[in-house]
Design goal:
about 170 residues; alpha+beta
Length: about 170
């Protein structure tokens, strides 16, 4: 199993075809999220899979009309079920836990030959209302999934020596 090629190949996709995602691929992507690590193994997540085009259209409106939100055949709302837990370092755990689970989904999407795009620009109150998310929970991010209409060039990445140091800053 070699993951690095999937990570190197992954780019944000904002143009999706209308081709549906098969259930086996979707199940594998959701399983990757389920298996992701979390602080104290709390697994503070709930994933709402949105395939209905009408609901995706409503969410697109709540996402300030970003077209890829409704053009993707699947949207996954990544929600937290525990907004209060703080790790010993003082940081709230759920943004890290949810981001890790979504990253696992994106890597599995590459394995399934699907494109993905994280969506964080949206009116959370509206999305919660559309998806009937309980008041005390948070919708942390959305993940758009589908077959890429085209794959853009991967943007340049910083070199390793610009971002990695050993033993001190």
């Amino acid at each position: 199993m070699t993951l690095l090629p999937h990570i190197e190949h992954r780019v944000t996709i904002r143009n999706f075809t209308k081709e549906p995602i098969n259930q086996e691929s979707l199940d594998a992507i959701l399983e990757a999220a389920r298996l992701a690590p979390s602080a104290k193994n709390r697994q503070p997540w709930r994933f709402i899979v949105v395939q209905d085009s009408g609901v995706r259209g409503q969410i697109q409106n709540a996402a300030y009309n970003e077209p890829h939100v409704s053009s993707a055949p699947v949207l996954i709302a990544a929600c937290t079920t525990n907004v209060d837990y703080r790790m010993p370092n003082g940081q709230t755990s759920y943004p890290i836990d949810i981001a890790t689970a979504v990253a696992f989904m994106m890597i599995q999407a590459e394995e399934e030959k699907l494109g993905s795009s994280i969506v964080t620009t949206f009116d959370e109150t509206l999305v919660k209302e559309i998806l009937s998310v309980p008041h005390s929970m948070r919708v942390v991010m959305l993940l758009a999934l589908g077959h890429a209409e085209q794959r853009p060039m991967r943007p340049p990445r910083h070199s390793a020596d610009q971002i990695i140091s050993y033993n001190h800053w």
